[in-house]
Write the structure tokens for this entry.
Amino acid sequence: MGGSFFLAKIPQQTQIPAAPFPIVIAGTLVNRKENYLTIGAFGGMSMQPPVIYIPSLKTHYTNIGIKETGYFSINLPPARLVLETDYCGLVSGWKIDKSQLFAPFYGKEKLAPMVRECPVNAVCKLKKPWIFPTMMFSSVRWWNISWMKTA
């Protein structure tokens, strides 16, 4: 067939495809103090209107702030923040104050701390908490994308 070839198809057990899911840091205010949580999977549900999802067990400390304010941020960490991102996901806000891990900044709502060191940030408004036992859906209010300015 003119030099073309076909790959053999190998049946596999039914499962979610092993696609890469971006690691993000969720930020919120708990008792008016910044708190962060590393999220191991995050994704889009709709482009228009923009809707995203994050998985988060109901027992996570960060969820208190998300339920209180109705807002959270999504922050895409660069490779140089791998240790801080890992630490943020390993320790609980119930036991450790994570407010000093990152330099916060805010959008107009002032309810979702974003991480200044992250090149991509989003402010999200909770749509419905825990439609599934561990899933939150939110509308994206706005994105912030950093770039290098040249002189």
The helical segments are 62-69, 82-90. The radius of gyration is 18 Å.
